[in-house]
Amino acid sequence: MRSFYSYLLLYISMILLLFCTSTKGYSDLEVLLKLKSSMIGPKASGLDDWEFSSSPSAHCHFSGVKCDEDHRVVALNVSFTPLYGTLSPEIGLLNKLVNLTISKVELTGNIPTDMRNLTSLKTFNISNNFFRGSFPGEILTGMTQLEILDAYNNNFTGLLPVELANLKHLKHLSFGGNYFTGEVPDKYSDIQSLEFLGLNANDLTGKIPAFLGRLKNLKSLFLGYSNAFHGGIPPEFGSLTQLKSLDMASCNLTGEVPESLGNLKRLRTLFLQQNSLTGRIPSQLAGLTSLKDLDLSLNELTGEIPESFSALQNISMIILFKNKLHGSIPSYVGDLPQLAVLKLWENNFTGELPENLGRNGKLCNLDVSSNYLTGSIPLDLCKGGTLQELILMDNFFFGPLSEKLGNCKSLTKIRIKKNNLNGTIPAGIFNLPSLSFVELDDNFFAGELPPRMSGDSLEMLKISNNLISGEIPPAIGNLRSLQVLELARNKLSGEIPPSISRCTSLTSIDFSQNSLSGEIPKGINKLEHLSNLNVSRNRLTGEIPAEIENMTSLATLDVSDNNLIGRVPCAGQFLFFDDSSFSGNPNLCPPNDSHCPARGSSHGHAPCFAASKLIITTIMLIILEGN
Questions:
Q1: How far apart (Å, rounded) are the C-alpha atoms in residues 343 and 35?
Q2: pLDDT at residue number 609
Q3: Which of 16, 55, 103, 372 is 20 to 30 A from residue 310's alpha carbon, by CA?
Q4: pLDDT value of position 206
Q5: How far is CA 147 from CA 92, 124, 171, 377, in A?
């Protein structure tokens, strides 16, 4: 009886093994093990649970593997584990595969033509690898059920495969991020099922094909970045009424923006930046009532921002910088309820910023630098506590900064140099927790720096060429992340606080053209990363700290035009500074001036010439004794 059951069990096992065997006599288990062997490179590991087993269904429990009721592999998902190998031809033996996803595992080599046997495939995703060579179009002829083909970010070359035109169920096609050349095949207009088409970041040429306007189900179209099309945007794209994303940035476009794009009522993203588009912004784009993100920057657009854009009630990002736009910034911009990002820099805008800008409580990034704007800075820019970047430099703004900015804890960057702003700098700015960059140069700010400073994130503080008076507060030493400190050309007095030595991340200090007095702090040598120190044109006294000779990172030193005394040190880093670094100090002696008084005993240094003389004398005595 026991023998009978043993034979029965063996018989059943053989039957099951027969069911889960692919063509050419290989079982799916054997195919997977061959795939593992090829996909794992010499220096990689992974797929550790893919091991041989006598169980006919063991492979169905491998990570990333799914089987049907007959133990045939129907899904293979191996992603996000660097394997560094290749895809072996045996992949074509898994002829029941419906889903093949091998993404971001750094495979290389060519795509095996044996994949033409995968006639049940619906999802084919090999994105973010290093596959190379031509994409073998012949493998697609039998994949009549294919819905997703994602080969994004590989190293494919040659022409785009025309065989795709026969795939009547294809919804998602991504060939972006490769090196395909030539033109977009006309036959692509036959893939009426397409909802996503990504051909961006290749080396495609020719005109952007107008026939793509016949893909009525298309929701996302990406054609930009690195492609070098000639001509303009086809007006036929206005027929893509299902479109939600249109990205044709940086692909050599010329001509005007078609008015017909205003028909795309479902469009949420329109990216046309970094081309050579000319003409006015069509007022018809106000018909894009679902639009959230608009980027027309880095073109040659002229005219004004259309008044009709007040209808864009869902828009959150308007980017128009580096064009030739003029006129005022429409007042309705401040009323756009979702507006978070407004970047209009390097145009010819005039007038004032809308008074209500920021009152929607959503504003997080405002950059209108390098225009001809005037007036005061709106008071409610940070009403919602979301403002991160405030960049208004190189305009004609006047008046004081609102104290509200000092309470805007979301701020990371303030750049408002080269304006006509005045009043005192809000004290709270120096205590904001996330603020890393403050640039207030070339204004008319007056008053004193606040006695309290605690901005842990502050890396750059530039307030040069203003009317700041009083002393540099000792609290400056609390700014431990500070890398650049520029307070030049103000009316600062008093001494340089020794606490500056606590700012150990500093790489550049400029205190020039003030009325600072006292000595250069002895602890300055603690600033081990300092490469530039400029304290010229002040009223500093005392000797140059000899400790500076050990500051090997210091590339530029300027202590000229002060009242320093004593001898210029001549060792270490001082060997790299020329005379101009020390000029304009009447009582400062060059290193080899024999009439210069020796340094005080507290410094423990003899004059350089005396030290040299002693060394020479010692050497001569040794030579004489040797003779």
A1: 50
A2: 40
A3: 372
A4: 94
A5: 18, 8, 5, 53
Give the residue carrying structure tokens 């309470």: 407
Contacts of 30 (CB under 8 A, 6+ apart): none
pLDDT of residue 610: 42
Residue 95 lies in a domain: yes
Instruction: Fill in the amino acid letter for 350.
Output: T
State how far the Cα of 417 lies from the Cα of 462, in Å rounded to an integer.
Answer: 9
CATH number at residue 106: 3.80.10.10
Look at residue 97 and tell me if it is in a domain: yes
DSSP assignment of 130-182: EEEEE--GGGGTT-TT--EEE--SSEEEEEPPGGGGG-TT--EEE--SSEEEE
The residue segments making up the domain with residue 53 are 27-134+144-153
Q: With a threshold of 0.85, does the pTM exceed it?
A: yes
Tell me which DSSP letter residue 266 carries. T
Contact (Cβ atoms closer than 8 angstroms) between residue 180 and residue 161: no
Q: Tell me the pLDDT tens digit for each residue of 545-592.
A: 999 999 999 999 999 999 999 999 988 999 999 999 999 999 999 877
- Give 567-600 as a DSSP string: EPP-SGGGGG--GGGTTT-TEEEPTT-TTSPPPP
Which secondary-structure segment (H or E) carries 76? Answer: strand 73-77
Q: How many domains does the chain have?
A: 2
Q: At which residue do the structure tokens 């595992």 appear?
A: 105
Closest CA to 503 of 531, 522, 484: 484
Q: Could you tell me whether strands 293-295 and 396-399 are parallel, antiparallel, or unpaired per DSSP bridges?
A: unpaired
Q: Report how far residue 213's alpha carbon sits from residue 258's, in angstroms, rounded to the nearest whole number.
A: 13
CB neighbour list of residue 27: distance below 8 Å, 6 or more residues apart:
17, 20, 21, 56, 59
**Confidence class of residue 458 from pLDDT cuts 50, 70 and 90?**
very high
φ/ψ of 397, rounded to 5, equals -65, 145
Question: Does 354 reside within a domain?
Answer: no
- What whole-number distance in Å separates Cα of residue 297 and Cα of residue 329? 16
Pair 324, 348: CB distance under 8 Å? yes
Helix (H) / strand (E) element for 438: namely strand 437-439
Distance CA 396, CA 352 (A): 10
DSSP 192: T
Amino acid letter at 125? Answer: N
Question: Cα(151)–Cα(178) distance, rounded to whole angstroms?
Answer: 8
